[in-house]
Amino acid sequence: MPTYEASHAHVLGVDVIAVDETWWRLVKKGASKRWWVWSVAREDAVSYRLLSSRSTDAARTVLADYMGKAIAYTSGLWPGLVRFLVDPKIPLDTNSVERALRGVAVGRKNHYGSRSERGTRVAGLFYSLIESAELCGVEPRAHLHEAALRAVRNPGKATLARDIRSSQA
């Protein structure tokens, strides 16, 4: 999981991110629970976290230290609302993260969610790695293959899609 965690840290490591969530079905014996897929995106990567809630605590879990920036942003609301006028890095919409969630939404319809909490977390891991590879222009299968090989050679070392892209150039 070092690559998954490093990818999430990479996404949170910029000044501007996009965040959105959508529901996810967790199917357990005799019952179905609604979980939430949190999507956090930047230009070259996306990270998914599947959590049992979309509460403030869940947002803190997903955004970690980035929450401080978000709270500071909302405390002075008007300057934040017009900030995009002076900072071209800030988009006018959240279309990028909405597009990133499309794969999750299509997958959710095809396989009806997960059958266990572990399966739910594994889904978040694979969606993150595959979507980030696509954003970097790296073939997802090649990224997963290379990341696995590097993990065997150097246990605990993360391999992000952008690392593979730069080694292919």
What does it look like?
This protein is of the alpha+beta class and 169 residues long. It has one domain (2-128). 54% of the residues lie in helices and 18% in strands. It has 8 helices and 3 strands. It has helices at residues 2-12, 56-63, 66-75, 77-81, 95-111, 117-135, 140-153, 161-168, and strands at 18-28, 31-42, 45-51. It is globular, with a radius of gyration of 17 Å. The model has no long low-confidence stretch (mean pLDDT 85).
- Order of strands in the sheet with the most strands? 1-2-3
> Helix-strand pattern, N to C?
HEEEHHHHHHH
Which regions are unreliable across 5 or more consecutive residues at pLDDT < 50? none
Radius of gyration: 17 Å
Structural class from helices and strands? alpha+beta
**Domain tally:** 1
The separation of the N and C termini measures 26 Å
Query: What percent of residues adopt helix (DSSP H or I)?
Result: 40-55%
- Indicate the proportion of strand residues: 15-25%
**What is the makeup of the main sheet?**
3 strands, antiparallel
> What is the count of β-strands?
3
Rough outline? globular
